[in-house]
């Protein structure tokens, strides 16, 4: 219903001719004309909703090719309504108008019934999900406790430990809850604590056997543990095993004779890493690097300490490019150690986190990838630009648009925008405003007209705070919905809030910016369904 209205309103921009392969895409047309690429999402929403109507018309109607006579055309064309039917149409204010099949010629009074879509669809799961959401999330009109309660409830419903997607979905809701509690501020240590708590069973990383994996600093082979070795100076047989004190005494004895390489071999062989690292640091750089690499080689390849040491060495951790596999364990622990131990190079930190998100997204873990993108401050993009990493929280751009713009993903993104507004009053997400308008259109379809009008106010506030010339088409659609969907029956005037006072001039026809005119806001004819 509403999508047909939007299609009629946008027809001057799109034209009546079908698009062919040689014509530029809608996204390119909007870029060439100076309009925002957010209009591409709006066009996708309208085209998806109108496909069903076009398909149904193609089944019932067929054009006569090459017909010279109008009478022949009428003889071939079928009747529009072959059987008696009940006319039904959608009216303003979330109403469904039904004409009863009474014939006044037979003395039956003409009867028209008006039903409320909100009442008819009250038991539907979609309307229940919309009514449970405390939107629109306007900073001045809503307490953040309501948003935190909603996030906590959604995290509990999404927490399915049997699947990775359920855990990732619950983690994303918990992350939004934490951001709302902290007024949009992201602290690495707090996020890391959340990631560690989410790991039900912490991974145990088995250390590697240094005897089996290390290469000697000298040319001599490694002795077998438990067997003795002959001291070349004294001729005594010294056991390689012993108490820590005996190992340190042997290390000291080798240094008494100036045998630094043998002392390093002994220290690394018996895991006296403190002695070995300190001694090698006072020698040449090559020896120190070799001892350091030996120490890290004793750790499991998927140990988060490996991730930390690689990051502190100025390299992108290997876990950022290989996480998501079972052999690499839980990616949350690797992200936690990166967030809690930020190195001086902020670009390196950001690249490591973004690479981890790209790896997870490539393996289908979209919600996990978006958790990484949020930590790296990746900006939100547009659906038509496939190189943009994030458009709606928890939704992949590889899907069809009808599946991409799901209600849950729009609600998540609106909560994140609300958290940013708690920190800064003008921190709107420009590319997200078109999705809030689509959400308002869905509210109208399910009879929640009052809530939809509040969303129009919120979108109008965001447009007023930005460059309005980039969103002229979206602004026109918001104004049309606000006028055509207003309740028809008079009601007591509500007390205007601070947010509504700021948007009332926008919804006034006398103050519309050019090229709009009051004539363009006339209510179009509503579609009739049989």
UniProtKB/TrEMBL annotation:
<protein>
    <recommendedName>
        <fullName>Protein transport protein sec16</fullName>
    </recommendedName>
</protein>
<keyword id="KW-0813">Transport</keyword>
<dbReference type="GO" id="GO:0007029">
    <property type="term" value="P:endoplasmic reticulum organization"/>
</dbReference>
<comment type="similarity">
    <text>Belongs to the SEC16 family.</text>
</comment>
<feature type="domain" description="Sec16 Sec23-binding">
    <location>
        <begin position="253"/>
        <end position="471"/>
    </location>
</feature>
<comment type="function">
    <text>Plays a role in the organization of the endoplasmic reticulum exit sites (ERES), also known as transitional endoplasmic reticulum (tER). Required for secretory cargo traffic from the endoplasmic reticulum to the Golgi apparatus. Involved in peroxisome biogenesis. Regulates the transport of peroxisomal biogenesis factors PEX3 and PEX16 from the ER to peroxisomes.</text>
</comment>
<comment type="subunit">
    <text>SEC16A and SEC16B are each present in multiple copies in a heteromeric complex.</text>
</comment>
<keyword id="KW-0333">Golgi apparatus</keyword>
<dbReference type="GO" id="GO:0005789">
    <property type="term" value="C:endoplasmic reticulum membrane"/>
</dbReference>
<keyword id="KW-0256">Endoplasmic reticulum</keyword>
<dbReference type="InterPro" id="IPR024340">
    <property type="entry name" value="Sec16_CCD"/>
</dbReference>
<dbReference type="GO" id="GO:0010628">
    <property type="term" value="P:positive regulation of gene expression"/>
</dbReference>
<keyword id="KW-0472">Membrane</keyword>
<dbReference type="GO" id="GO:0015031">
    <property type="term" value="P:protein transport"/>
</dbReference>
<keyword id="KW-0653">Protein transport</keyword>
<feature type="domain" description="Sec16 central conserved">
    <location>
        <begin position="88"/>
        <end position="184"/>
    </location>
</feature>
<dbReference type="Pfam" id="PF12931">
    <property type="entry name" value="TPR_Sec16"/>
</dbReference>
<dbReference type="GO" id="GO:0070863">
    <property type="term" value="P:positive regulation of protein exit from endoplasmic reticulum"/>
</dbReference>
<keyword id="KW-0962">Peroxisome biogenesis</keyword>
<dbReference type="Pfam" id="PF12932">
    <property type="entry name" value="Sec16"/>
</dbReference>
<dbReference type="GO" id="GO:0016559">
    <property type="term" value="P:peroxisome fission"/>
</dbReference>
<dbReference type="GO" id="GO:0006888">
    <property type="term" value="P:endoplasmic reticulum to Golgi vesicle-mediated transport"/>
</dbReference>
<dbReference type="InterPro" id="IPR024298">
    <property type="entry name" value="Sec16_Sec23-bd"/>
</dbReference>
<keyword id="KW-0931">ER-Golgi transport</keyword>
<dbReference type="GO" id="GO:0000139">
    <property type="term" value="C:Golgi membrane"/>
</dbReference>
<dbReference type="GO" id="GO:0070971">
    <property type="term" value="C:endoplasmic reticulum exit site"/>
</dbReference>
């Amino acid at each position: 219903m509403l999508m047909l209205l939007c299609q009629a309103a946008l027809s001057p921009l799109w034209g009546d001719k079908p698009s062919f392969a040689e014509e530029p895409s809608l996204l390119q047309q909007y870029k060439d004309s100076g309009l925002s690429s957010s209009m591409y999402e709006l066009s996708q929403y309208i085209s998806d909703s109108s496909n069903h109507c076009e398909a149904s018309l193609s089944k019932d109607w067929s054009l006569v090719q090459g017909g010279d006579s109008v009478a022949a055309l009428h003889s071939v064309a079928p009747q529009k309504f072959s059987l008696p039917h009940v006319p039904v149409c959608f009216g303003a204010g979330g109403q469904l108008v039904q004409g009863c099949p009474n014939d006044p010629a037979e003395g039956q009074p003409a009867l028209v019934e008006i039903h409320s879509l909100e009442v008819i669809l009250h038991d539907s799961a979609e309307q229940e999900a919309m009514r449970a959401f405390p939107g629109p999330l306007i900073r001045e009109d809503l307490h953040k406790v309501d948003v935190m309660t909603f996030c906590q409830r959604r995290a509990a419903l999404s927490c399915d430990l049997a699947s990775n997607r359920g855990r990732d979905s619950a983690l994303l809701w918990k992350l939004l809850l934490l951001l709302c509690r902290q007024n949009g501020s992201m602290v690495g240590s707090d996020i890391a604590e959340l990631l560690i708590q989410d790991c039900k069973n912490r991974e145990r990383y088995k250390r590697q056997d240094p005897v089996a994996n290390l290469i000697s600093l000298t040319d001599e082979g490694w002795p077998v543990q438990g067997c003795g070795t002959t001291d070349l100076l004294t001729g005594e047989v010294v056991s390689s095993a012993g108490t820590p004190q005996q190992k340190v005494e042997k290390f000291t004895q080798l240094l008494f004779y100036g045998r630094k390489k043998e002392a390093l071999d002994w220290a690394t062989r018996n895991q006296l890493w403190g002695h070995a690292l300190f001694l090698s640091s006072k020698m040449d750089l090559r020896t120190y690097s070799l001892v350091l690499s030996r120490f890290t080689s004793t750790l499991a390849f998927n140990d988060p300490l490996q991730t930390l040491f690689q990051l502190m060495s100025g390299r992108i951790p290997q876990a950022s490019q290989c996480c998501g596999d079972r052999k690499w364990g839980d990616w949350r622990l690797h992200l936690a150690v990166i967030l809690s131990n930020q190195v001086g190079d902020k670009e390196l930190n950001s690249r490591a986190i973004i690479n981890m998100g790209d790896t997870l997204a490539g393996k289908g873990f979209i919600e996990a990838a978006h958790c990484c993108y949020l930590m790296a401050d990746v900006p939100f993009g547009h659906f038509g630009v496939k190189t943009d990493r994030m458009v709606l929280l928890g939704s992949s751009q590889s899907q069809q648009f009808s599946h991409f713009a799901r209600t849950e993903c729009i609600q998540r993104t609106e909560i994140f925008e609300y958290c940013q507004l708690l920190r800064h009053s003008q921190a709107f997400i420009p590319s997200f405003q078109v999705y809030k308008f689509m959400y308002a259109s869905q509210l109208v379809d399910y009879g929640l007209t009052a809530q939809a009008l509040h969303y129009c106010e919120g979108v109008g506030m965001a447009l007023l705070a930005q460059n309005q010339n980039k969103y002229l088409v979206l602004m026109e659609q918001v104004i049309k919905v606000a006028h055509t969907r207003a309740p028809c029956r008079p009601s007591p005037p509500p007390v205007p809030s601070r947010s509504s006072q700021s948007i009332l001039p926008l919804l006034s026809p006398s103050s519309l910016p050019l090229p709009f005119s009051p004539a363009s806001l006339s209510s179009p004819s509503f579609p009739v369904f049989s």
